[in-house]
Write a sequence for this structure.
């Protein structure tokens, strides 16, 4: 970002220092008991502050991705395909696993440490002389950094993942454009509502007049709420399953799909785990067909999806000779997808799971979905005030052992010599596990 005419006295020697500054603001990722209102999440005020910082609405065309499960994966896949088609891309997702800069990417790469530091300094400078008028939350700061960086770097298309819900999410300041809505299920009920219909209605508020909706398969009550919103604002709905067909290839490993949309794309070899990924792939192809010239789309789909994997989303790796699967999903729907993926890829394998979850999640239903595929559970907690004590998780399932830290849990699970080690229940747990594994791998 260019320097602002208003300069800040703040200077950050490292990205870690800048991250610590952002975490000093209200951070809803560390708070359990809150309910957003138009006062606590004032989008008009946020947009006004963004304009003061130099943002020009509409300067960068967008794709807005919302829903409950899979929205991060879909956002990453859309970005990969568009970039492979020659589009200069910006990608904004959450949460991060290890470094806050992961959330803001240009052409597939996280923004540099110096750019991150200067961007945070710039925002502080813009509001230095306006006490009380700056961005109030960590997420508002990060959203502003992303939008301003994409504008500064003149990206052709920015893909933004909704943080939470839709109606009052900071990303919802962007003008109308293509919207993708992934399957909606019960999650964050204390914030979004107690029913799938209410949650879907909140998430559907990212649909605006002049845009269009790409809709993944939904529960009936969610689809009804989304289509009602689309009718109210006069927006076309494209069912992804009708637009693009994605089939597994018989006799091939997981992640190998035959794809057919407006044209035949043939067989594409991704590294995605689980049959549910068909819908995520189909969404990326449907958006690409809408945004890319036909002559470029065929090659872009092949190049963009070949070898595709998304960190922390059914990610496979090796550690200490063990096969490891990492997944940060935290609701029963995510657990069902993980269990089905494990059954397909590792039928008959002895699976040991390291699980940590936030206190406000549905522990019992999540664990009940995993129980048929997991031989042993080791419960632990992330270094976050929202984390549930390991004993609470063990009590919810009625079995398993506990460990005081992710490092200790990984050691305990590894000692049982599993065929597959699953780490799941929270992106915080996955991030900490990655840090432990990579730190030990360097020794």
């Amino acid at each position: 970002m260019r320097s602002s005419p208003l300069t800040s006295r703040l200077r950050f020697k490292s990205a870690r220092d800048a991250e610590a500054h952002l975490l000093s603001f209200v951070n809803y990722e560390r708070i359990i008991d809150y309910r957003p209102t138009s006062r606590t999440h004032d989008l008009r005020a946020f947009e006004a502050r963004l304009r003061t910082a130099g943002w020009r609405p509409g300067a960068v065309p967008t794709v807005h991705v919302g829903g409950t499960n899979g929205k991060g994966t879909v956002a990453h896949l859309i970005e990969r395909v568009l970039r492979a088609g020659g589009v200069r891309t910006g990608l904004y997702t959450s949460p991060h696993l290890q470094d806050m800069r992961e959330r803001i990417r240009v052409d597939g790469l996280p923004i540099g440490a110096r750019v991150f530091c200067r961007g945070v300094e710039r925002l502080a400078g813009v509001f230095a002389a306006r006490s009380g008028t700056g961005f109030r939350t960590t997420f508002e700061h990060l959203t502003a950094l992303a939008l301003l960086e994409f504008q500064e770097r003149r990206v052709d298309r920015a893909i933004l993942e909704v943080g939470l819900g839709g109606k009052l999410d900071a990303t919802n300041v962007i003008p109308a454009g293509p919207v993708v809505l992934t399957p909606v299920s019960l999650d964050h009920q204390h914030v979004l509502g107690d029913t799938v219909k209410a949650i879907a209605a909140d998430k559907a508020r990212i649909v605006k007049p002049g845009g269009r909706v790409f809709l993944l398969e939904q529960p009936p009550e969610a689809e009804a709420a989304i289509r009602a919103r689309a009718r109210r604002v006069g927006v076309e709905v494209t069912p992804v399953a009708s637009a693009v067909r994605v089939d597994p290839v018989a006799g091939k490993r997981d992640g190998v799909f035959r794809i057919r949309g407006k044209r035949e794309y043939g067989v594409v070899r991704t590294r995605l785990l689980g049959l549910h990924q068909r819908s995520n792939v189909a969404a990326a192809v449907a958006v690409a067909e809408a945004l890319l010239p036909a002559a470029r789309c065929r090659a872009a789909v092949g190049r963009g999806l070949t070898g595709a994997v998304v960190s922390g989303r059914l990610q496979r790796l090796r550690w200490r000779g063990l096969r490891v699967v990492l997944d940060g999903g935290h609701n029963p729907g995510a657990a069902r997808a993980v269990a089905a993926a494990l059954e397909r890829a590792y039928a008959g394998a002895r699976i040991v799971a390291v699980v940590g979850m936030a206190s406000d999640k549905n522990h019992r239903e999540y664990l009940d979905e995993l129980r048929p595929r997991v031989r042993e559970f080791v419960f632990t907690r992330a270094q976050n005030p929202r984390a549930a004590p390991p004993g609470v998780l063990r009590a919810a399932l009625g079995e398993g052992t506990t460990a005081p830290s992710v490092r200790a849990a990984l050691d305990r699970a590894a000692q049982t010599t599993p065929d597959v080690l699953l780490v799941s229940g929270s992106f915080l747990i996955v991030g900490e596990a990655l840090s432990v594994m990579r730190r030990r791998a360097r020794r």
About this structure: DSSP finds 16 helices and 17 strands in the chain. The two ends are 37 Å apart (CA to CA). The chain has two domains: 15-305, 315-441.
